[in-house]
Amino acid sequence: MAEGDIIGCTHLAIQTMQQAKKPGVIINLGSASGLYPMYADPIYSASKGGVVMFTRSLALYKRQGIRINVLCPEFVQTDLASKLDPKFIDLVGGFLPVEMVVKGAFELISDETKAGSCLWISKRRGLEYWPTPAEEAKYRVRPLTSRRKSSFMSPLSTQIPQSFEKIVVHTLNHDFRRATSVISAPLRFPLKPDHVLLKVIYAGVNASDVNFSSGRYFSGDKKDIKSRLPFDAGFEVVATCGGKEKAKLLKDLGVDRVIDYKEENIKTVLKAEFPEGVDIVYESVGGEMFDLCLNALAKYGRLVVIGMISQYQGDQGWKPRNYTGLCEKILNKSQTVAGFFLVQYAHLWQQHLDKLVDLYSLGKLKVAVDPKPFLGVNSVADAVDYLHSGKSVGKVVVCIDPSFSQQLAKL
Ligand SMILES: NC(=O)c1ccc[n+]([C@@H]2O[C@H](COP(=O)([O-])OP(=O)(O)OC[C@H]3O[C@@H](n4cnc5c(N)ncnc54)[C@H](OP(=O)(O)O)[C@@H]3O)[C@@H](O)[C@H]2O)c1
């Protein structure tokens, strides 16, 4: 079909769906040469590029339940492709099996999140969406309308999907990307009378996600720890971080003494400015930082361990460390070292969440969300990598449904 016809036919298909009130999926056939230049045939490349951008620009029909996507395969053995120089076909790894194109088409049909999506299919890299969310984030701008106050409007149709996407761990590994894949699972109908179907739009990623994907959190250690976190007012707060941006955020949050470990030596500062030691330490870095915190703990001090992010990565993943002399040190100063694992306090979540929401409403609790956008469930692994890069400032959040990416989440 000529590319001009693709525009006309797509509009015709949209109209037909609208008139029949039967929204569905339209798949245009582009080509990999619409994504990058095919020097041998510039006109072909240009027209396929047009198909790609035309289709991508129709993403917002998703609001009406109509999803228009484009397939961009490299060479399949058709009459047209057989006329090309075989050396050129060999360069890209040979002809694609037609089954791969069919698989791609089914993915674009069955995956409810795909709208205005462009699926590149190549022998070398398999099925890959183009552009990646990171590339998209570079050019995306927020329309002025979505900056208006109280303009929250659902861009979704109220159609109930038949399936949902979920991330499953298929191989235990601390490399979240290698351990997991995104699969589509059917929703179980009918819904039970006392059940509610919720759509997750934003999800936060957590440093410990790599411990779930490596299975470290399921070792069977269910020991209950009865410690309480004394978050109440009246303390002089010292906080550590790596980088100027984070230091500024901590200062703005009201921290009394920020130690940016890229600028100052934590041990030197603590020795000089807190010679009596620190009463309560909330520790999440582990390794050398744990040693340092333990040595800086005051008499009767309490050290709460919530994690050990510095030990999660590396070749072997999370490697437990030996803390030589721990018992002697805490005995010597009658100190307490306690663990705090959120999942073992699930019974207190609701109560505690209410408290946090109240504090937030009163302006006493400030929430920082990292501004880097991550769009779609497939970007969760990128978000996990970013969290572990040390560059994040605030909670790293993934917008699970990209059609909501222009909307601001509200408490
Ligand atoms: N106990 C629980 O139930 C529970 C629940 C959730 C999270 N956690 C723990 O809380 C900690 C923070 O998790 P989060 O999800 O809230 O993430 P987060 O605070 O957003 O973590 C990102 C920050 O960690 C620091 N970091 C990253 N890699 C590091 C490394 N190799 N060495 C030292 N610092 C590094 C970086 O800050 P700087 O470089 O500025 O230090 C980075 O900005 C983790 O240890 C996690 O396991 C515990």
TrEMBL record:
It holds the Pfam family adh_short. GO terms for molecular function: oxidoreductase activity. GO terms for cellular component: mitochondrion. Residues 184-398 form the Enoyl reductase (ER) domain. The keyword Ion transport does not apply. Keywords: Oxidoreductase. Belongs to the short-chain dehydrogenases/reductases (SDR) family. PANTHER family: PROSTAGLANDIN REDUCTASE 3, SHORT-CHAIN DEHYDROGENASE/REDUCTASE. This is Enoyl reductase (ER) domain-containing protein. It comes from Fraxinus pennsylvanica.
